[in-house]
Write a structure and sequence with these properties.
Largest sheet: 2 strands, antiparallel
Order of helices and strands: EEHHHHHHEEEEHHHHH
Distance between the termini: 27 Å
Strand content: under 5%
Structural class: mainly alpha
CATH superfamily: Di-copper center containing domain from catechol oxidase
Radius of gyration: 19 Å
Number of strands: 6
Helix content: 40-55%
Length: about 290
């Protein structure tokens, strides 16, 4: 069932394809994967349809707190299997997605394209995981739902993405001591800084309904969205005092922390709200992945 092949450093040829044993899939190249998706017409479907899926590729995303343990474990196991797959340079899937995010940092941040670009990014992350488990979908963390007590959110528990605060590694769960290689080998750190305000959904919806246009809302939304990154990672003080920092507000490496992908769901839902309000999103469509 393979449909994209690549040559490993040893010279062995590996192919993409769905397998009953995802650990058998040891090769993954993000560039090849994206080009293949474009050849299959995914780009046109994303741009031309009001929904990014059809009945043959239906994806229902659910909040991490609403998942059964089996459902969460299916997602986590797909991530772990994907992490073991590398490209011809030995970069695993986490490294490749983090590096790709870094490559497009100027285009994807501080720009009206923020929502659209990240909507695509998490769609392709989810699609990549479906190489390893074709039934998996990306869960999400609704930080607005936990705004009153984000530190107590279920996402930061042993049964989900793992606990960890005040600069520790991920302490437990399937992602315990989560190690990454981009931009250099290290363990992901988390802080859960209670001094950072996490906004509730009412504030976000009010901004959307009251902003004068899409550009104004995009600018304000990106700032609010970024507060959650600051909460997970810590405010800028550590840099000034030369203290350790987490991943989430460093654009170059933020996808190293898997909470990044769980948090980005709000990008898709907010984009859909803008479409429904007819605030003119077509001018912000990203036409290609270079």
């Amino acid at each position: 069932m393979g449909w994209v092949q690549g040559v490993m450093p040893s010279g062995e040829i590996k192919r993409f394809g769905h397998s009953k044993n995802p650990n058998e899939l040891t090769y993954f190249d993000l560039g090849e994967f994206l080009r293949e998706k474009q050849r299959m017409g995914v780009s046109q479907r994303l741009e031309g349809a009001s929904s990014i899926c059809d009945l043959a590729d239906r994806r229902i995303r659910r909040e991490v707190g609403d998942l059964s343990q089996l459902e969460w474990d299916s997602y986590a196991d797909a991530v772990l299997a994907a992490k073991n797959a590398v490209d011809s340079s030995g970069r695993n899937i986490i490294h490749q997605f983090a590096e790709f995010h870094d490559m497009f940092s100027n285009e994807a941040h501080g720009s009206p394209k923020f929502l659209c670009w990240h909507r695509w990014f998490i769609f392709y992350w989810e699609s990549a995981l479906r190489v390893f488990n074709p039934l998996v979908t990306l869960p999400y963390w609704d930080s607005a739902r936990d705004a009153a007590n984000p530190r107590g959110a279920q996402v930061f528990t042993e049964t989900r993405a793992g606990s960890g605060e005040n600069g520790t590694n991920v302490l437990n769960g399937k992602f315990k001591n989560w190690n990454v290689t981009f931009a250099q080998p290290h363990s992901v750190k988390r802080f859960l800084d209670e001094s950072i305000l996490v906004e509730n959904s009412s504030k976000i919806d009010a901004l959307l309904n009251n902003s004068s246009g899409t550009c104004e809302f995009m600018r304000l939304f990106e700032a609010i969205h970024g507060f959650v990154h600051l909460f997970v990672r810590r405010w800028s003080l550590p840099r000034a005092l030369n203290l350790p920092r987490g991943e989430m507000t460093q654009i170059q490496v933020s996808p190293n922390d898997l909470v990044f992908f769980l948090h980005q769901y709000v990008v898709s839902t907010t984009w859909r709200k803008i479409e429904k309000l007819n605030k003119g999103v077509s001018q912000f469509i990203v036409s290609s992945w270079r």
